[in-house]
Amino acid sequence: MVRRRQIYEGKAKILYEGPEPGTIIQYFKDDATAFNAQKKGTINGKGVLNNRISEHVFTLLSNIGVPTHFIRRLNMREQLVRQVEIVPIEVVVRNVAAGSLSQRLGIEEGTQLPRTLIEYYYKDDALGDPMITEEHIACFGWASQEEMHDIADMAIRVNDFMSGLFAGIGIRLVDFKLEFGRLWDGDYSRIILADEISPDGCRLWDMVTGEKLDKDRFRRDLGGEVEAYQEVARRLGLLMEEGAEVTTVLDLDKHRKKKGS
Known about the structure:
By secondary structure, the protein is of the alpha+beta class. 31% of the residues lie in helices and 34% in strands. The protein has helices at residues 46-63, 99-105, 134-140, 145-167, 216-219, 225-235, 249-259; strands at 6-9, 13-17, 23-28, 31-34, 39-42, 70-73, 78-82, 85-86, 89-96, 112-122, 131-132, 171-185, 188-194, 202-206, 240-242, 245-247. The strands form four sheets. Strands 8, 9, 10, 11, 12, 13 and 14 form a seven-stranded antiparallel sheet that branches. Strands 1-2-3-7-6 form a five-stranded antiparallel sheet. A two-stranded antiparallel ribbon has the order 4-5. The protein is globular, with a radius of gyration of 18 Å.
């Protein structure tokens, strides 16, 4: 198969020209970064698991009417998505104090927040993705007021749905990151959900033990990153049972690579 033209390579994904106008192929890498790429490493099989988990979550969100860029999964590491103009804002939705929020405000990690908190960060690796306000966004024209209303409304809706989804499998949705894009139709555009939703961008804690099932295992040198991601996929019903044994998509990916496909 001839590899299509590469458009962009980020910390966790590579984007290629899609087979049709207005489409992109999104390839999930095993690369792992933390602290604005100051810490780098590899989590073998992460890309395969994130591709499958993100497909599952985006499909469920589409089913409840949340517009997304996801079209379909192509193979174990690639999915076909709509080409959008990414809004240069990372949206962080917080339900529980953790990470930078705990550090900035001195709130004990694990404290349930009195209400869901939405934070905005300017997407710029060189600047360390600084935290910004809606005033900054309006001042510099990164998004219109109408677009920000749509973004905030969708963020809350996604949070409500995902909190229930993960609670149903014994996982506490602590916080997560979203990205949005403009889908253009002539001179008009609308905001849709883009990027991915996976343990890379979510804090997911076991409701009983508090065990971290996300990228914090890499950030904090806890080990067991692949097992944590696999556990999330298993609870979501995305692993295949074969008799008494579980065969994961990671095993299949290794088999595919050996065959040279």
